[in-house]
Amino acid sequence: MTGGAGFVGSHVVDALVEGGHDVVVVDRAVPAWPNPGARYRSGDVRDRSCWDTLLDGVDAVCHQAARVGLGVDMGDVADYVSDNDAGMAELLLALHRSAFAGRLVLASSMAVYGEGVSRCAEHGVVRPPSRRAADLDAGRFEPRCPACRLPLEPGIVDEDTPCDPRNVYAATKLHQEHLCAAYGREAGVPVTMLRYHNVYGPRMPADTPYAGVASIFRSAVTAGRPPQVLEDGGQRRDFVHVTDVARANVLALSAEPAVPGPLNVASGEVRTVLDLAHALTAGRGGADQPVVTGAWRAGDVRHVVASPARARERLGFAAKKSFADGMADFAGGAGADQAP
User: Is the backbone of residue 27 left (phi > 0), alpha (psi -120 to 50) or beta?
Assistant: First the structure.
């Protein structure tokens, strides 16, 4: 397992060990939450020498290692491509050289969909174009029909929706999927791509430009500051708890038969970013109410919500942690930095 010292990865390690699996973790970071039932190897997945004996006896690979988040600006592009694309390539090369015949599970992202699909009252289902800076500056945040410029009604995407990455991170995650699919076809190995939605929960990184919005808001509330909500807060998302994401990985690694292809890992509950901010302030007693700033970031998409139906039907996965319960725990910091 790569990236097993990180936020999502450490929870997957815990779930695998609890299920009786023999887990070997490779990560360049020192594990902050080491599981005594797992074995840890220090290494960078981009370093070809780290794979010399790492795959001996391995029957499944779970690839979590990645640079995540929207980043700062295009100055991050080389780091994203190095960590995500080159790291993926070195793993696949190692699998090829070891004649790996097990299964591969990739941590992908809902970001690959971009704005997904929407409906225009005049022109029906359309793919939203990139939003214009002039519209965003004027507070017109909803994507507009490319034909008539009317605001669009956001839709729900499924795994067959054409991908349309809108930022560097999203582009690298889609490239990872393409590389894995190419390897799977050539090697005859089943590859499952788990497209995570907005993951939150204990051990979430804080106070970095790569942290998710849930972590950014919680850091603000914990420090006694009101969450700063971009745009008008109406951005639609699906917030899924990290323990549910870990369970999806275990299912993908152990399902018989294997379930290849992309699968959305989501709760099925559509929420807005402003809903998230209110939930976190409510969990801290309701003080420091969110401030809607109207500011915007290049590369952000307005809405991305996907159907979890295929993961339920093919993998038997359904999220267990509700938004209300998960946010109440997260706001209170329950188990946030506790090692297993």
Answer: beta
